[in-house]
Prior knowledge:
Structural class: alpha/beta
CATH superfamily: P-loop containing nucleotide triphosphate hydrolases
CATH architecture: 3-Layer(aba) Sandwich
Strand order of the largest sheet: 5-6-7-3-8-9
Helix content: 25-40%
Order of helices and strands: EHEEHEHEHHHEHEHEEHH
Radius of gyration: 20 Å
Largest sheet: 6 strands, mixed
Number of helices: 10
Amino acid sequence: MITLTHVCKTYKVSKRDAGFSSAFKALFHKEYEYIHALNDVSFTIGDGEMVGYIGPNGAGKSSTIKILSGILTPESGTCLVNGFIPWKNRIEYVKNIGVVFGQRTQLWWDVPVMDSFELLKEIYQIASHIYSQNLEELTEMLGLGELLKTPVRQLSLGQRMRCEIAASLLHSPRILFLDEPTIGLDAVSKLAVRDFICKLNQEKGTTVILTTHDMQDIEALTNRVILIGKGTILLDGRIEDIKEGYDSTEEGLAAFYRNHNI
C-alpha cells in the first residue's frame, strides 16, 4: 500500500542574467526563486495496482517518484509505503522497491552487464539461489541472452533499457517505479517492455507506477491515471475520463492541459 498525504516539496533555485557583470554581482548578492514542485499532493495506491502518473514537463512527477524512492525528503506531509517512511528507513525500504529512470542508468558503463548484476546481488544481499532463479527468468522474459556479456556502452538504447528493467527486479521488489522507461525506444522494443510489465503484474502481483508522456504506454498498461499539474493533483480516475469526447487520448489530454492552463 502506498499512501501520500498532503506532501509538499519546494526547490530554491538561484537566478541571474547572462554576462560577466551579472556573474560578478552574483558573487556578492544572489537572487533566488522558489519553485513549488509539489503542493498538497495526496493519493493512495493499493497492492498490485498499475497506475499511470502523468502530467506536463515540470509538473512534479519525478519529484514524487524521488520522494517515494526515498531520494528526496518533503518539507511537509507524510508518505508511507508498505509500512516504511522512504527517506527514514532507506536501507530496509529499498529492498522492497525497484526503480527505473529512463534517462539515468544503474549499470556500470564500461563493464559487461553481468558484472553490474553481480554487484547488485551483493548490494541487495540477494541469496544465491534466488538470484540465479530471477536472473534466469528475467533473461528469458526480456531476451537478454548475449547482452549479459556486452559492455553497457555498446548496447543500443532498447537493449540497455531491457537490462535496466532486469537490474531493478533482481531482488524481487514488491513495487516498481518506472520513470519514462520507453523513452527513445523503437516500436518492437516498446512492445517487448509493455508485454513484460503486464506479465510481471499479472503473475507476481507487482505494484507498478508508470510515469511517461507516451499515452500508448498508459493505455496499454494502466486502468487508472493520476494527473498532476503545477504540483497539484488535477485528476485521479480512468483514462476514459481524459479521452471522453475526443478521437484520441492525446487530443483529450492536450485539451485538459489547456482548460487548466498548464
